[in-house]
Design a protein that fits this description.
The protein has three domains: 4-56; 87-154, no CATH class; 173-298, Transposase Inhibitor Protein From Tn5, Chain A, domain 1, CATH 3.90.350.10. It is built from ten helices and eight strands. It has helices at 39-52, 87-99, 102-105, 109-120, 125-135, 142-154, 157-171, 238-249, 265-273, 289-298; strands spanning 4-9, 15-23, 26-36, 177-186, 209-217, 222-229, 255-259, 277-281. One of its GO terms (molecular function) is transposase activity. This is Transposase DDE domain-containing protein. Residues 174-286 form the Transposase IS4-like domain.
Length: 299
Amino acid sequence: MSPRLRKVTTGSGATAVQIVRKHRGKVTVLEHLGSAHTTEELTALLAAGEEKLATHGAAEQLELELGLPADEGAPPRARTVVGSRSAILIDAITESWKRLGFSEVVNDQAFFQLVLARLVELTSKADSLRVLAELGIDPPHHNTFLNCLTRARDRDYRAKIAGKCFDHSVATSGISLLLYDVTTLYFEAEKEDSLRKVGYSKERRVDPQIVVGLLVDRTGFPLEIGCYEGSKAETHTIIPVIKAFQDRHNVTDMVVAADAGMLSAKNLTELDKAGLRFIVGSRQTKAPHDLATHFRWNG
C-alpha cells in the first residue's frame, strides 16, 4: 500500500502527524512530521506531509492545466513547520507558579520544567524531555533533571513550597477544616524494594505499590503529603501527616475530616492528645467498633 498520512493523539493532548505505510496488516512509521497543538499547526503539518509523500514513493497527484489565471497572492506550495509552542498552557502554569509565590523560594528553571512536564503528562523523568519538546520548549539534558532533584533534596524545596501553600490557604479558605485521605500508586515492577511493596490495593492489583496520604484544605488545595511503603495500613498514615503539618507550621487548632476506616482507636486517642477535633464520614449503622468504643467512653 502506498504511504499515507496518519494523525495520532499524544499523551499530552497534541496531534502527531506521521507518514506511515501498511504492509500485510502491519503499519510502519516512515517519518514523524511533528505534533500540532492548534488547528492552524495541524493544517500546516498536513500540507507539509502531502508534499513529502512523494519522497516516500507515493503516487504524485497531477495538476490540470486549465488555462485559468494564476493567483499571485496564493502562498507557495512548499511549507515548512519550524516550530510550535503551547503558549496558553505554558503561560497559565507559569502564572500560577508565580502567583502562589513558588518562584520566590525556588529559583530553579530545571525544577520548574520538570514540574511543568509532570502536570501536562504524568511520566518518567526521561520521557519528560519528550513532553517539553511537544510543548515547544527546548528540553534540557536528562542529567540536568537528576541534578535538580539533588538540589531539591539538599535545599529542602518541599518545605519552601509547603510554606507558600500554607500562606495561600490561610489567605483564602483558611485551615480551620482540613480533609485527609490516602490512595495507592502501583509500579509495573517484578520485585519489591524497601518502599514499593505489595499491599492492599484500591485498584485490586498485586503489583508493588506505595501509599500516599494527602492533607488538603476545604477547597482541596494541598497542604501536606506523606509517602509510605505499600504494605503500610491506611490507619497508620494519618497521624504522621497531621503531626508533620503541625510541626512545620505551628498549628494547634483545626478540625480533621476523614472516612471512618482511617480513624482507629489509637488514632482517636492521638487526636485527642493533640487537642484536635475530627469529623468522621460514615453511616451510623456501619461505624467501626473503634468509633463506637471511643464515643461510649469520651462522649
